[in-house]
Amino acid sequence: MNPDTIIQGEKSLYLFNEHWIRYGKSALLIGTALIIYIACITASSFVHDVNHTFAVVITIAGHVLLLLFHHAAFYQFLSASTNQYLISNRRILGSHQDLWFADQMIDIPLWRIRSVEVQKTGLIQHALDFGSLVLNSGELPTLKRIPRPHTAHMKLMPLIQDMQPALEKHCGSDTHRVPESKMQFVSPVHV
Amino acid sequence: MELLLSPVFISLSIFSLSVTGFHLWGLARASKRHNASPIGCLCKQGALFPNRTMVVGSAIYVLLTLAYFVIPVLLHH
């Protein structure tokens, strides 16, 4: 472990995985694989008496498709199981990994967050109680498939409010203001 | 048994097993990356990978991969 990645005085407050709906794609792939395989086996048994070679070809094709979908499903499953979010007293961290093709880490300092919107769209999201947290109206990365997003929002808001003095200090510092002596007044152009 | 020992099925089985191994190796690498990341460092025992879901999922994955070698032969007979 590398302790350099932790900010001094940082504490983890709320760790959560994405909603279980992330496994939906895997379940769909496994279901499709089984349906295709059963269809191939059924077709093979019908053809068996007429043409044995063709029946074996269909069986093998079904088996190949089954294995393809099976591996794709578990690749999706294992990749999805690595998705996790952590809210600390300083920042929001998110981890999204594909086993071999992607590795994404979200690191959002709390002082950058001005607004948090809870978004639940569609019947499934309402029924299963999950949704997205949109930060700064989409200016920052959106946290997707959050279970009980209103709870996450309630836990996040006090932390963001605590950070507001730091934000005001950052925005109100002299380095970000243009001195009056350097301001230029442009006269309107008359056509 | 003939079908099971046919070159097509032997090569498919070997290929399938190597894909499984490749995926599990990828999971081990992803877990290592995650444990070294800020989330892993901050949460220590609470968020270390591989977690229970991953272990159970991997076990089912291996068992199903092995089962898919035998099922076609059983069905063929």
Q: What coarse outline of chain B follows from CA principal-axis ratios? A: elongated
The span between the termini of chain A is 68 Å
Determine the strand fraction of chain A and express it as a percent band: 15-25%
Strand arrangement in the largest pleated sheet of chain A: 1-2-3-4
Q: Most extensive interface: pair and counts? A: A-B, 38 and 40 residues
Series of secondary-structure elements of chain B, N-terminal to C-terminal: HHHH
Tell me, rounded to a whole number, the average pLDDT of chain B. Answer: 86
Helix content, binned percent of chain B = over 70%
Task: Give the total of beta strands of chain A.
Answer: 7
For the sheet with most strands of chain A, the description reads: 4 strands, antiparallel
Q: What is the number of helical segments of chain A per DSSP (H or I, 4+ residues)?
A: 4
The portion of residues forming beta strands of chain B comes to under 5%
Structural class of chain A: alpha+beta
| SSE succession of chain A | EHHEEEEHEEH
Q: Nearest-angstrom radius of gyration of chain B?
A: 17 Å
Assembly state here? heterodimer
Q: What is the CA–CA distance across the termini of chain B?
A: 9 Å
Structural shape of chain A: elongated
Summarize the structure.
The complex is a heterodimer of chains A (191) and B (77). Chain A has 191 residues and is of the alpha+beta class.
What does this structure look like?
The complex is a heterodimer of chains A (191) and B (77). Helices cover 44% and strands 22% of the residues of chain A. Chain A contains 4 helices and 7 strands, in the order βααββββαββα. Chain A has helices spanning 24-47, 52-80, 122-128, 149-172, and strands at 12-17, 84-88, 91-98, 102-109, 116-119, 130-135, 143-147. In chain A, the strands form 2 sheets. Chain A has a 4-stranded antiparallel β-sheet. In chain A, strands 5-6-7 form a 3-stranded antiparallel β-sheet. In chain A, a hairpin with a 2-residue loop joins strand 2 and strand 3. The radius of gyration of chain A is 27 Å and the shape is elongated. Chain A starts with 11 loop residues before the first strand and ends in a 19-residue tail after the last helix. The model of chain A is unreliable at 174-191 (pLDDT under 50). Chain B is mostly helical. The longest helix of chain B is centred in the first third of the chain and has 30 residues, at 7-36. Chains A and B meet through helix 2, strand 2, strand 3 and strand 4 of A and helix 2, helix 3 and helix 4 of B.
